[in-house]
Every structure is written in C-alpha cells, then in structure tokens.
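Researcher: Please translate sequence to structure tokens.
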Amino acid sequence: MKKLDKYIIGKFLGTFFYSLILIIVVVVIFDISEKTDDFILKAAPLKAIVFDYYFNFIPYFANLFSALFTFIAVIFFTSKLSGDSEIIAILSSGVSYKRLMVPYLISAVILTILSFILINWVIPPANKKRLEFEEKYIRLRYRYNIKNIHKQILPGEFIYMESYNNVHNIGYRFSMEKFENGKLKSKLLSDYAQWDTTLNKWKVTNCTIRNITDSNEIIIHKRHLDTAINLHPNDFERRKNLVEAMNYTELKKFIENEKLIGSDNVALWQIEQNKRFAFPFSTIILTIIGVSLSSRKRRGGIGINIGLGIFLAFTYIMFMQVSTVMATNANINPVLAVWIPNILYSIIAFYLFKRASK
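Model: Translation complete:
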C-alpha cells in the first residue's frame, strides 16, 4: 500500500467516523428532549435509559444511515482535495483515475463488511434490549387488530379465529381442522379459545368435535376442553419491527415458520432478510458516485457537490422505500424489489465514473 492509499483511506475513514459521531450526538440530544416526558411519566431508571436504550440505539441509528454518512464523507473530503488542487496533482503525477479509485474502494469495502456484520449479528441483540425498553417505557401496549385469522400450525393442521384479544389471550369463533392426504379427518368448532397460563394450554369453550372416517362421522359436544395447539400467545404480540431483534439465522428460521402458518407478512420479512445484503452493498455504489461527482473542481465550490450528493442519497433512500412498498402490496419478488435501487444506482455510478475519468 502506497502513501497515497494510506492518505486517502485515512481521510475517508476519519471523515466518516467524525461526521458519524457529530450526527449521533445531535440525534441523541433531540431524542432525549423528545422522550423526556415518557421517561419521567413511566419512571424509567437512569441506568436503563443509558445502558438499555441509548447504548443500543446508537449502533442501530449509526448503521441505519451509514450509507448516507459514507456518501457525505466522500463528497466532503474529496471536494476539499479537489478544491485544493490535490486531485489534479495526483493525476498529473501519472496516477490514472482508476488507480485513484482503489483506496476509495478499499475503504468502502471495509465499511461494507463492517455494516454486514453489524446488521446481521451485532445489532439484533442490541435491538432486542432497545425494543424491550420501548415496550416498557415508551410505547402504548400493542393491540392485535387483525380479523379472520387463518394459520397453518402444523402440516395438515389449520386454525381459524374470527378475532383475537391479545390483552386477555382469547380467540373468538375458534375452529381447528386436521387433514390427511387432502381429506378432512376432524374439525373442532367452539365459541372461543383462551390461553390457560397455569397449564400452558388452550382451553376451548362450548365446542363441537367432528371425527370423520371413511365409513362414518362421530360428533362430540363438550362444555370445556383443554387442548395442546402448536400456537402461543406470543405469536399475537409481534410488532412488525420484531425482526429487527433477530440475527440472520433466527430470521431465516422465522420466515420458514411464517410460510408454514400462511402468514400474510412473509413478503415483509423477506424484504428485511434481503435488505441485510443489499443495504451494505450500497456503500460501495454511493462511494463511486460520490467520488465521480466531487473529484472535479467546480466554480461553485464544495456546496454544489454536497447539495447534489445529498439529493442523490435521499433519492436512493426514497427508491428503497418505494420498492419495499411495491414488494409488499404489488406482489413483486422481494429479492428483485430490494435490489432494484442498487441496480439502478450501479448504472448511474458506472456512467458518472466513465464521465469523470475522461
């Protein structure tokens, strides 16, 4: 590694972490001022606020906007190099534009690997503590409001609830069906099913059971019945941000289970899974765009480069959100939807790089 590489890598990473620390300090101050009333109202202990919430909030926030911070850092220090004619001096010494990009790409790859490790294995445990704190001291209690619930709890075994009250753990108009080789073998109908915390089982009330064989059908009526069902009240307590507390292995198993039970949110979870690959990769793309935009000395100075760079960064974030909505509501493949912004901006990066190198 030459002095030039060490110089640019040092500038890149130094500017990135410096800007990141500054932004985090500002965000934490604003967040404290916004949530102080909640902390006081619910008597949140200072130790929990500092160690359970903010110590876990900071890495989550830092990684969430790491691509944007990378972009701003590249625009800022490269524009300064260009403004001081250092880029011209480097290129005049015989260094090609492609060679100039090498230390930038090395820095981007380092940040990409760091982001990938953080988002898949380090941040999820931190998010778990943060979300637990929010549930206890900030958020209102979660209420499950989905109607007409259909779930496959085991292969060939299905349950239905007209509605579910997660405060009292009661499912109304409860039914359960068992199939073998595509044929209905038994069906249970009841007024409601309630979770028994003592037995850790579901207790169904006013139930009718139909056992069907090839030759006849047996009908049984029961006032109360304790039954073991592969379903837990925690399954109805999940907010959509629950997956943020799962590492990659846990998320993969969770998606497989959600497919089994026929969840309507499988596409949403798959988007989260694919984002954990696509999002870190965006650091490399935005780095190339940032260098290509800011390596040329402009008459308007650094302000134009920063303004144009921030505009492109926010349009990238907007495209990421739009593609997420498309995958959720328009039945577009989650893998394709998540990678569309990266594909589009890779083309923009290639075009800008070719133009800048000339």
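Researcher: Any highlights?
Model: Residues 149-236 form one domain.
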